[in-house]
């Protein structure tokens, strides 16, 4: 109910702003919905959304896998932390645009370059979060696992992973929000399809209804994934933690 109310308020503000600004600058909701419906009927909307989601899924999975492994290593091994920290600081502060442009220059305007650039931009946030999680592991539980001579996999599965789960969830949430933004820039600069590409075309044509149609469709997908996947995963990962009264 609160979300429906929030959506209704958004539509009301949009409609009022459209009346004040004029259709040329801000089309009203029916005009944008008409363009969205036309793009959906032609299949273009689903094609470009699918291309963007595929890039998000690949880049996010790659960055999370590498980031979790590197972050855990840096959190547990002091030498690895000292060696990797300067590179981590560099990647955290390097603008995403620089990474994307360099990837396209070095690897060409290819799918591999786009996914690699998106993953590299997300990687340091995952490393930082998982490194802090590895540093926060309970030493007493580690000693208990050694006393009971748990095999390495069982120790990781039943002792380490439950403690790291909240950090994995936090890295996933923050990283996914970052990937959503970066993928559009990568598509705008160097891909022939995707939501970012269509937004670039709409900008060149000054087609505001088309721009808003793709932007709002993308936002709807983001909210859907956040509600159906990210929030339930975060709640499940943190279910063992005691809740405040």
UniProtKB/TrEMBL annotation:
GO cellular component term of the entry, any: plasma membrane
Lineage of origin: Bacteria, Pseudomonadati, Pseudomonadota, Alphaproteobacteria, Hyphomicrobiales
Pfam families: BPD_transp_1 (PF00528)
Keyword Ion transport belongs to the record: no
UniProt topology in membrane: Multi-pass membrane protein
Entry's transmembrane regions: 45-75, 87-107, 211-233
Keyword Lyase found: no
Family: Belongs to the binding-protein-dependent transport system permease family.
The protein, known as: ABC transporter permease subunit
InterPro entries with a match to the protein in the record: MetI-like (IPR000515), MetI-like_sf (IPR035906)
Major subcellular location class: membrane
Organism expressing this protein natively: Bradyrhizobium archetypum
A biological-process GO annotation: transmembrane transport
The ABC transmembrane type-1 domain, residue ranges: 49-229
Keywords: Cell membrane, Membrane, Transmembrane, Transmembrane helix, Transport
Source organism, top-level taxon: Bacteria
Annotated PANTHER family: ALIPHATIC SULFONATES TRANSPORT PERMEASE PROTEIN SSUC-RELATED, ALKANE SULFONATE ABC TRANSPORTER-RELATED, MEMBRANE SUBUNIT
Subcellular location(s) of the protein: Cell membrane
